[in-house]
Design brief:
This protein has two domains: 122 residues, P-loop containing nucleotide triphosphate hydrolases (Rossmann fold, 3-Layer(aba) Sandwich); 278 residues, no CATH class. The protein has a five-stranded parallel beta sheet. Helix 5 links the parallel strand 3 and strand 4. Helix 3 packs across helix 4. The two termini are 22 Å apart. It is 41% helix and 16% strand. The protein is α/β, with parallel strands linked by helices and 412 residues long.
């Protein structure tokens, strides 16, 4: 069983917060994580799941009585299936804020449901659980973000052959995918997984007629990972009206299958791109959707730019979910000009730029986007790195600009 790095944050939150919500896509390990916290003695209480029909019926029939019977400490799994529980949870928490602790898990972003956000405002702490990160798979905890934001520190790196990086991208981080020994077996699991997402989470979130259209929309998004999302283009290719398409994309975001990264536009100029970039939550799922049956495809670095960007960005998003640093993710891009794949902004407005390259060697031009960002940000620009697939940690590209082997992301 994998140790999830976010567990410590959840346990800490239990000391002062009455309701904890663990959000994330299905099969990322939410129930397992909560069970482990309970098993290790950090939380004493019942575990019930709304995936059980009898339990769900009882919750719907008498929400307040259902909760009172469970006691003051309880884990409620797949809470999005029983939105009737949120108002009674508010009532019980307000009556005994210090004595009651409730852990909720959700496979859909329940905070987007009507009245839920308002009912639990000030009473809930939210933790997003993504597929396993590379350091979790290896049983470690990366210090990458702390090293990035401390400009006096150098990154810890290890020699990681490209073949190993390609294998990591191919498998992804879903626990079940990691247990499958071949691409064909992983594809079978991902196909069944997508069916379950459609039939459970998306169907319950919205009463839509075009349920069968959503997988095609997701595939079109998969071919555009790392790019700003162009709704008109996808609408034209899919034959789906733009308004309907936006609704589908929102649903995919709500079930945590896609992630949008907003543009950094603080220094607003006409040439700055303002559209968000889009990524899939996992490169194993990405490979399945694209149909990469040929395992040698990713072994060619020139083929892998967008996949590697998706892989690294999601690794950093995962680390942000448990980090004690407050860093907001953005991307930076100028129309027909320079770009930076990921920009992290701290509370004081300090910026840390990360460019991702699949090449094993670099040129000065690979730093153009970081240099442009530093010019626009001025003193707010703290550090810029180019993550690449070589083995050397290199400076000399400019003030606070370095080339860093990509393995630093998970070795820290």
């Amino acid at each position: 069983m994998y140790r999830r790095n976010i567990a410590d944050s959840i346990i800490e939150a239990l000391s002062d917060t009455p309701v904890i919500l663990v959000n994330g896509a299905r099969q990322t390990g939410k129930s397992t994580l909560c069970g482990k916290i309970r098993e290790e003695g950090a939380f004493q209480g019942q575990f019930v799941t709304m995936d059980d029909p009898a339990t769900l019926l009882a919750a719907e029939k008498d929400p307040l009585g259902f909760l009172e019977d469970l006691g003051k400490y309880v884990i409620i799994d797949e809470i999005q299936r029983a939105p009737e529980l949120f108002i009674p949870i508010k009532k019980l928490v307000d009556e005994d804020r210090k004595g009651r602790r409730i852990i909720l898990t959700g496979s859909a972003n329940v905070m987007m449901m009507p009245r839920v956000g308002d009912s639990l405002a000030g009473r809930i702490e939210i933790h997003n659980l993504w597929p396993l990160s590379q350091d979790e798979i290896e049983g470690t905890r990366s210090n990458f973000l702390h090293t990035l934001t401390d400009t006096s520190k150098k990154f810890k790196v290890s020699k990681t052959p490209w073949k190993d990086i390609a294998a990591r991208m191919r498998v992804g981080g879903y626990p079940e995918s990691l247990e499958r020994s071949s691409t064909s077996r992983r594809n079978k699991w991902f196909a069944d997984y997508m069916t379950a997402i459609l039939q459970k989470d998306i169907r319950e979130l919205a009463n839509i007629e075009g349920l069968t259209e959503i997988p095609n929309v997701l595939k079109l998004i998969a071919t555009r990972v790392g790019s700003t999302i162009n709704m008109s283009d996808i609408s034209r290719l899919s034959g789906i009206k733009n308004t309907t398409l936006k609704r589908y994309v929102t649903l995919l975001e709500h079930v945590f299958l896609i992630v949008k990264i907003p543009a950094w536009t603080k220094n607003t100029e006409g040439q700055l791109v303002k559209s968000p970039k889009v990524y899939l939550n996992d490169t194993g799922l990405l490979n399945h959707l694209i149909g990469l049956e040929d395992e040698s495809f990713l072994e060619q670095r020139s083929n892998a730019g967008a996949y590697l960007e998706n892989f690294v960005v999601m690794e950093i998003i995962k680390q942000l979910s448990w980090s004690d640093l407050y860093l907001k993710p953005y991307h930076f891009s100028i129309h027909r000009g320079s770009e930076v794949d990921l920009v992290l902004e701290d509370r004081a407005g300090g910026l840390y730029g990360i460019e991702i390259k699949s090449a094993a060697s670099l040129q000065n031009s690979d730093f153009n986007g970081l240099i442009k960002l530093s010019e626009l940000a001025g003193s707010k620009f703290k550090r810029g790195i180019v993550l690449y697939t070589g083995e050397q940690y290199l400076g000399g590209f400019g003030d606070n600009l370095q080339a860093v082997p990509i393995s630093a992301v998970w070795t820290g």
